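Researcher: Please predict.
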Amino acid sequence: MFAAAAARADLVSDLESALWIGDGRSPQASEGREDPAPEFVAIFRKGAAFPGRETLFHIVCAGSYVLSVNGRRVETLSPTSLMPLFSPLGSTLYADTVRIPAEFLKTDEGERCEVSVLLGNGWYGADASPAGVDFPADFPRGRPCFKFIAEGVGELEWKWRRSAVIENSLARGSVVDASRDADRVMKRATFVKGPQGRVVARRAPAVVVGETVAGASKWLREGEVQIVDFGACRTGYPKFEFRDASRGRRVEIVYGESLRRDGSVEPLPAHAAPRDVYICREGPNEFVPPFVWRSARYAEVRGAPALLGKGAAVWCRIEPGFERKPPSEGLLAAKGGAVSKLHEKCILSLLNHLPGFLVDDPVWGRFQRGSTVAAVAEALAQNFDMREFFVKTLRDFADESASDGWIPESAPCLGAAAASPGGERGGTFESACAVPVLMDALFRHYNDARAFEFMPVCLRYVDAVSLKYRDTGVAGDVSTMAHWYRFLRLSERLAALSPAGLDRVSQLGALADEVAARFAEKWVSKEGKVGGGTAPEQALALECGLVPSQFVAAAGERLQEALRADGFNPPRNPLDARRVLLYLSSHTMDEDAARLAMKMQKSCESSPVVAAALDEWAVRYARCGL
């Protein structure tokens, strides 16, 4: 129905100079108190004053938003506008440009039209981080606010009122009170202090509804509690219809992936939005939790007026609106049967973990972890047009690392960065590899020179690590040294192609050579044993090229021996399982790879890393003509 309009060349500068609009309340005003989401309303006229002018709305907000014109929702992203518009707060903000069809501007009153912006807290609220980590004391907080520019309409004067959305929090869930009388007192909106980051046009794929699945309901305690089964664990949001409800009836809903022995729902962890509350108005009611999403199979509904019949409980799966680009046209289909079905299963799993950005676990996580990003980038690029998605993710990591050079564990991390090895900030070397991995994928798959805009991120990180370990060098276990070596080699290769890195190529290469020599001396035996000789250790060293050439054959044999000794059970860590599978499949150990792949299928749906690895394996398998 709607398509994002092409942004004017001066859109970004216009929005950067525009003032933030808000309700004027302090960020602390809502802490521990009822805090209805504000709805901002402006009246405008569309008519002869703007002949031939297209009606365009440009918006950027701190929080989440739903845009409506004359009471009709403009579904610019999804029914709940779930994609964040920042990277991270105070650094980069993303602007939407929306074309408004003429039929939306017709009213019974002629030219008089109304535009409404309902603002949710999103990630800008004052509550605890969705990752379960408190925001740091200096984290930029504030009330939800927005900037708005309209083309083809008259001047806008904004007012605001309280909505029926009493609470909307990624940490706590949502509360909607439909029984309340509409707030008829319109307060004048004020100009407020919002994030000071640069504004850029959003070009990454919008969040869309991928499929809707009807749930099946049964009583747990008749007349009181019912269980709705949506058939599979999916990332998204529910729609419930409560028919013939009495005003003020309170319905509470908790979500989970599994059931307890007594048939009740095993609830999600506290920071994964475990419950919604809906207070009914008289008669039929439809409830969609605003501004929040979760991943679940079951819903436990308490207090509904009746058992939810056919079509009264629906799950809407969300995913990015990617252009699908399947790999190896016809190859997987030609193989038929299990391999083709596995490919489709992997694709669904990957989409289930992409609610506007990448999460390694949509139940637990709300941010994209670098190690997961690096592990799935190749599989995503083989199947979708990931160009803008990769740029957005790289910008997240670049913004997060700008202050001190350390690349965080996740981005946008919003203060929830892990403390190793960067001290107070920074993530693991494995997570840091996300930056050069995405740069490489962006350039290799799309020939996109924007990849090299992020070369300074890699160079600052190398400088930060070198300074911290200038006396001892990076030591540690097999994984620590191997991923530091991988980061250096990837950065060396990219620096050779980047004007910003040409003068650092020899330094990066020398550092990598030094790490390789230390690694071989410390961790590789003459019999080809790496570290403790486990399959993950063997595969990691072989994959990174850290095993001296004279020991490679023996190291490969030890990898196979370790797998056989463990009955080809996949390593518990999905990243380790991926590494082992892909090394086997790329080094003519096809029978062993197939045995491992069959056992890894059990965790395909729950892990994007496993799904990505199995999809890469399936494509290689198909291409080999086995």
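Model: The longest helix spans residues 505-523.
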